[in-house]
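notes to self, project folder thing:

trying the whole complex as one job this time. last attempt i did each chain seperately and stitching them together was a nightmare. two parts in total, labels are on each line so i dont mix them up again. if this works i'll redo the older ones the same way
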Amino acid sequence: MADNILMQTISARNLSRDFGSYPAVKEINLELKHGEVLGFLGPNGAGKTTTMRMLTGNLAPSSGSIEICGIDLLDKPGAAKLHIGYLPETPPLYHELTVNEYLLLAAKLHRVDNTNISSALDEVKLQCGIKDIGNSLIGTLSKGYQQRVGIAQAIIHNPDVIILDEPTVGLDPNQMREILSLIRNLGTNRSVILSTHILSEVTNVCDRIQIMHQGQMVLNDSLSGLKERGIGLDEIFSQLTLDKKSSEEI
Amino acid sequence: MKFFRSLHWIRNLQKKYSLMILTIAHKELKSLFTSSLAWILLALVQLVLAWIFLGGLDAFLKIQPQLIQLANPPGVTEIIITPLFGTAAMVLLMVTPLFTMRLIAEERHNHTMTFLISAPISMTDIVMGKFLGIMVFFSAVIVLVITLSISLLAGGTLDFGLLLSNVVGLFLITTCFASLGLYISCLTVQPAIAAAGTLGALLSLWALDVTINNSNSIAQDFSIFKHYENFNRGIIDTFDLLYFVLFTFTFLVLSIRRLDGERLRG
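result (full assembly):
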């Protein structure tokens, strides 16, 4: 049991969030184990980004609880956020800084020890393939490189949980493949939540998938489980997320 | 023993927090000085103030022969430096919106606010760090004004008490401008709107001061420039000090509350 709790890196229970009278997320549960890559799927407007913003402390839930590595995010945000690395939909980059300056800032803000900062910087640049552009201004980089810098800031403090919101949007197929293999590597010793609507990405890198639709969690299953039952991801995705009316039309 | 241990704990906490505030302030200054805006405005402010300063010096030299005949003539500090600091406050009022507009609004506009909020730091760290950063910048402007004043030592002596009171007053009125600008920057996503709002608010404060006729009205107690006038004349009054400190404190707290509330409202 103790091991079980230790292994659990994210545990969100009965999470809800209303915007005015509109319920964006309704009573969802989300659990993640160490070394697991979770594919977080859903059509546009399903509430994925809202959920991720809640998990990273950017948005307070209307009700429910979130624990990150056993630390309550709402009670001790400072301690809990130390364990999270977050790449939002739009990478949060300061275009006037160089890559090195920016990563140094990210490391300091995440309380990386002064003695380890330069090695952490080198390691993360190597991992994300941005070793040679350390002195370039972020504003001058291409979209793909900016995305990598975004991932680098999310993992620089070696977090237990990495949350990536559509990290492959706007990348060319080669860059996409590289980023996905990076995510796969990260997932071996950390937990990763990968939000996307590209289904093939999920089958390549994820262990488990959760599908959201209209603010509710409609599927939570392992990929191998789906495979065993002979259900294709495309098939179940459209089954669960198309409303009845439109599926009848098809 | 237990007491000592708790002290140690507080010191550690302080170290941790001030470090984060310094990190944010450092980043703020870096962003500021990589843009040409800071340099251009520093140069223009200095140009305007040097002009005023030289004008004052010219006037002083003209009336100097008559001053000598007076029993208790006003010194060079009163004739040149006091008006210089009066103008400096007006100039800072004009340029504050241009610097405070970007503090929070631009972070939101560029989607970098998420970067700060996701980091294990509090809203207080963010607000105080940004305030500290912008105040370091404004202090540079004030140092330039002091340098102008000190250059008068080449030809005479200065009333350092009056100069000190002016410097303290200018610094405090700038903290008020900056905290108000920071708060208005928290209210919007568009830096330009933050700038317009701050300029409007500051000009209203100035208009309040201009329209006060009755010297005993309560409005006078609320007028930011009336309090500055005392410093300008060389009077450091606790009421004025308290007013400036409370003004700044209020808007910093409002900024923190505003940003905290945002997570709830979404």
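what i see at first glance: Residues 93-158 of chain A form one domain.
need to look closer tmrw
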